[in-house]
Every structure is written in structure tokens, then in C-alpha cells.
């Protein structure tokens, strides 16, 4: 690659590395198990707080002790190296212990959303041939029906009260009585731990092929798939966050409101902070209306959340005069945010004392969550930040391995240490997204259209599968329209989907769903008229929406992403 054209290619120039320390660029990522990674990083700080669970501080010493006890309990239950254990729960300390206990003994946690249907849960257990399941007691009725015709032999029951302080636990159990009638193969957490008291687990040696967890995709652009994330992927994610420009210092607090059954919650909300010696403040089941009180109570330096969380926070009356100068890194991922919403949130953060604007990121389940992030002042409106230090990101001509230059739009692809091992039992679908290019490297094809600028910032336009193609061949990216409409003052959020062009033999046209801000009660006709005029001024003729629909809320998938498929079905 010696031509002038080639030197403009992101994978050659790696413009983003100018923001990093030179020593960090050459430092190697440790090759070790998940458990050993957090242990080696914290063994000299055992009295530091690892987890905060409803004001119950759990030290790193207690964390390691409980992981080893949990590993012994799973061994006593019959779990062996190589077994897949389905975990169906929100985040509680017991789920954190189980995640690392699986790694310690060489088993694999299969993380399943408790909101999944009975048939869906059964399908995930059958697909992975799980013989054991760990489940939140509130979800047990689903599991009871789902285990029919499966090989499940043992069921571990977890309660959200198990790690509460005594008085809180008593109050919780009084209000939330467990009236389940459990089958004979069920064991509650305390007895489960007691059963493994005499077993001392031996740590399984590190293997680059070992799967740290199976996490399922949301299914917004295809059928849900089990993503096998290797131990190297989790450790590389944590390692890279340790090198970002905004220093994540030991014993700073990270408020994690993301669930453990998505990569974002598991990797960024649990493994990353624990690896770096932070305190992970875990919120099992967030009520968005309570987010302001949580921020004001815990005063976290960092937060893992989604765009909707920050939009709610910015509009909460309790935050009107609040000082949040302690919040250094308001991390936003899981779903795209429009320019209008981003500007509004960033204005809120800065005006309330936070030093930096919204820290948008970009990633996928298949990449162990984040691969790009804004970092402090290293931030551009509309971008998703720069690649984390060990990732290489570039745009390619869709369907090929022809790399494009800075500023040229194409399919965003990534090569780096957090790429998944593959989709569980789906080799053809794995081969469709993991492709070896002519440079000899394995690249993840994301299905997203975007580009990188000459400063190394990545910009995402739309998913290829969301892209609209008109009858005349013009391509329309929904994000382009959403960014314009979101700047209208009364718009809370919006989403653009494809609607069949009834005036032509083929092709789609843009259909807009709009959610107005709560203080806007009337005048929809006038608002619609002004939005139409805004689009006429800001958008090309071929991108003009065909229809606008006001609604109270958008549809979301269990993973918290806009359910475009469901919206498309109603776009008539």
C-alpha cells in the first residue's frame, strides 16, 4: 500500500491513535481467564468495594470468596467443564458470582432475558442443550413451563432479596411474598451454596477458545442468535477502557442500569468496572422515573446507559437545579441518538456542572458491546467517537473487502480483539459476518452504513437493512431524516421506517413516527405543518417523508432498541 490513495485509508493511517498514550498503544492484553483477570487486578485491594447493591457494600474479598463458593455449589449440583448453564435473571450479586463461577470451573453461562416468552426460553435451553438453569424467583413460573421437553435437571432459584441487608431483606420479603410452589429439582440460593461448602473448586486453565458467555442478539434485523463471546473479548474490552482518555480511577462509582443478558450490561457494567477496581452500583430493574434520585444519591463518576435514560434525566424536575459536576463520563450506547436529542442532553450535562458532553459509543453484541467511544473532549456532535485502542475500524464498499477512504460512506467493518467466537451452532450465519479480507485479517461486517473522518471519528448513517430504496433507485437513510426532525423543539424522539410506495410498482418511502415532549399537549396540526416545512428546507426531495404519525411511545425490543419491524407493520 504505497499509493497516495492507499495512505488515506483508515486502517493504514489509524488517525485515532493520536489521542492515546504511546505506551498504551504497544501494551499487550493479558491472556488469562475472566476470574483471574479481576483477581490479579484487585488482589492488593481486597478491602475496596466491588459491588454496591441497595447500599450493601460488597468488598473484593467478599466478591472472590462468594465466587469460589458459588463455583463449588455448581460443581456439587453436577455442572462440569463445558456444560452450558442458562441464567435467566436481572442483575443481582448472585448473577455476578455465577458469571465468574462458570468461568472458574470451565462452564458457560447462557444469558437469557427474563421477558422472553416461555417458548423462547425453552428454545434457548434446547438449542444450547442446557442441563441446569439459574433463575430469578419471579420468573420461575415461566421456567416451570419452559423446562418441559428439555434436559434441565437442576434449577437454582435466586431472589432479589438474597444480598440485601437484613432489615431491607425482611421488608422486601414482606411486600414481595414468594408464593411459588417449586418442583423437587429446585434449590434456593442459600441451600444451593451450603451444598457446595466442602468442595474447593480448581480453576480451569486459560483457553482462548473458551466462551465467557452466550448473549443473544435483539433480533431487530433478523432472527435472534446466540453470540459466543470469548474470554479474550471480555478482557480486551476491559483493558481498552483502562486506556481511554478519561481516566477510570480505582473506587470511582459506575452506575450500571443495563441488564446482564445484553453484552453492554455484562461487559461494560460488570466485567469492565470490576477489572479496573471501580465500584459497580448495580440496579436490577430500573424504573426510568427513579433515575434522577439514583444519580443524586450515589453521585457516580461514570454511568452505562442508553439515550432514553439521559433524555428522561434531562427533563426531570428534580434535576432542574442539581449539581452533577461529579459525573465525568455519561456513557450512552445500545441505540442511536439523534442530533437534536444529543444536543439537548449535552447542554443539560454541561449546564449542570458536568465537565464533558454526552459520551456516545458504538458497538454490537458480536463485538462484546463497545468498539468506539467519545472520551471527554474527544467528541464530535453526531459521531460515535473514536475506536478503542486495539480496534481498527473502517468503511468498505458493501459486499466486498474494498476499503474506502476517509469521508467515503460504506459498510462499517471492525477487526480487533473483541470479535465474537461465532454464533452458537450457526456456522453459515457466522461466515456471513466474519470474513477474512485480502489483508489476512478477520473483519466483522456490521451491516451499518457510515464513514470515518480524517480525525478518526466514526459516523453511522443507518443499518443497511434499514436503508430505504425508492422506486427510482435513490437510497434514503432513516437517520438523515430523524436528525432533521429531532431538532424541532417539541419533538422528544422520532423514528423513520420504510412504507411500501403505493403509487409505484416497487420501492419504499419514508414514514415517520413522532413522540412529542410531555409539556406539548395541543397543536399537533400546526406542529406537523412546521415539521413538513422543516423537512422541505433541510432534506433533498427524494428523502421527503410520505406520512407523519404522532404516538405516545415507540415500540422497543426487550434489549431496549426501537422495534423497527413492528413499526413498519403499522406504517400504512
3D architecture notes:
This protein is α/β, with parallel strands linked by helices and 572 residues long. The chain folds into three domains: 6-24 and 286-462, ANL, N-terminal domain (Rossmann fold, 3-Layer(aba) Sandwich), CATH 3.40.50; 34-228, Rossmann fold, CATH 3.40.50.12780; 466-570, ANL, C-terminal domain (GMP Synthetase, Chain A, domain 3, 2-Layer Sandwich). Helices cover 30% and strands 23% of the residues. The protein has 18 helices and 27 strands. It has a nine-stranded mixed β-sheet with strand order 2-1-11-10-12-13-14-15-16. The chain has an eight-stranded mixed β-sheet with strand order 7-6-5-3-4-8-9-19, with helices on both faces. Strand 21 (442-452) and strand 22 (458-463) form a beta hairpin. The chain is globular and about 70 Å long. The N and C termini lie far apart (50 Å). The relative contact order is 0.10.
Number of strands: 27
Number of helices: 18
The unreliable regions are 1-5
Find the structural class using helix and strand composition.
Answer: alpha/beta
CATH-derived topology of the largest domain: Rossmann fold
**Could you give a short account of the major beta sheet?**
9 strands, mixed
CATH architecture of the largest domain: 3-Layer(aba) Sandwich
Number of domains: 3
Distance between the termini: 50 Å
Radius of gyration: 24 Å
Q: What does this entry show, briefly?
A:
The chain has three domains: 6-24 and 286-462, Rossmann fold, CATH 3.40.50.12780; 34-228, 3-Layer(aba) Sandwich (Rossmann fold); 466-570, GMP Synthetase, Chain A, domain 3 (2-Layer Sandwich).
